[in-house]
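Dear U.,

For the methods section draft, I wanted the exact inputs and outputs in one place so we can describe them consistently. I've listed the two proteins in the order they'll appear in the manuscript figures. Please don't edit the token lines directly; just add comments below if something needs changing.

First protein:
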Amino acid sequence: MKATIVVPTIGRNLDNVLKDLSEQTYKNYEIFIEKEGNITQCMNRALEKAHGSILIRIDDDVRLPKNWLDNIMHTFKVNPKAGGVTGPTIVPPDLKKNRDSLKYAKYHKPARIYPSGRLSYGSNFLEAIEYVGPCDILESCNYAVRTDLVKHVGGNYRDWE
């Protein structure tokens, strides 16, 4: 399977993310750096050009372990019913203090929306890395979906704002 990795950017230095991508153990991928417009426009342009069966979005300032892409692709290979895969959003402790929404988060599973309407930001913890199971929200800085599913539901991303 081929992966299409999309990196929308707002002009940040991409050296770290590009270095990490070049060192991935899984090599069957293409990268699109999208610089113009909002994230929705960037993802739509990439979707039009994508050759990969898996469409992946990452932020321009993430760091990736060498087996990051291998783990994503393995999950899709072993579970043909998986429509999407998300990774944790690990916010460094020194930056957590600036994010009110994370100050009181104590959950260790991927983000969930509970019947009460409460939102869990659980995947912002290192403990979430080993979690395998359902989630309600794909982390926007680190998610993968089957390209054909995105096309099946309308063929493009929509701006929900």
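Second protein (the one for the lower panel):
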Amino acid sequence: PAPAPSPYPAPGYYYPPPYPLPAYEPPEPPPPMPTVSLTLSPIYLLLPMLKLTGELRLGTQGSVALIGGAGWITDTNSDDTKVTFFVYEVGSQLRYYVTGNFRRGMHIGAEILYLHVNGTLDNVTGVAQGLALGPFFGWKTTSYAGFTFEVQGGVEIVTAGTRVADSSGGSTSSSIDYIPLLNLNIGWSF
């Protein structure tokens, strides 16, 4: 009788490849998470006004942002008289990244902003100031090199007061209104 076949495969021989195998290189880790974003609003430059936002990361999902802006707005009256108003604003935002993180993701938050405007025409001075407060949602993306783009939308309640004064006296008024919150910022994170 013939011997039973072996349940194991026949031994093989290892033949090295004719060329060397490349060494294994692990993938390069992503750069560390940025901690600060500095952005500006290019739309405000058309007024001309410079509006800057500085955002500081708090942990992996939260951040706080400080906002500051200043500039001039020129208005032409019906009789072709130009009036230039000086404008400044200061405020802050609290943000929470619902998806993603400080580098890239969707965030929600709240903004509070103080705005001050004043101008003079023919010995008449006008001053307006207001406080805006409201929720928003937005999206931020940062390249690994640091370029940052963000967009935000929401609604704010505004309490505003105006005062007009001339040599014969003056008048004041106040109002409460709702306005859209729209921010489009570009800048750098590091």
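Candidate sentences for the figure legend, describing the second protein: The mean pLDDT is 89. The two ends are 81 Å apart (CA to CA).

Thanks,
Y.
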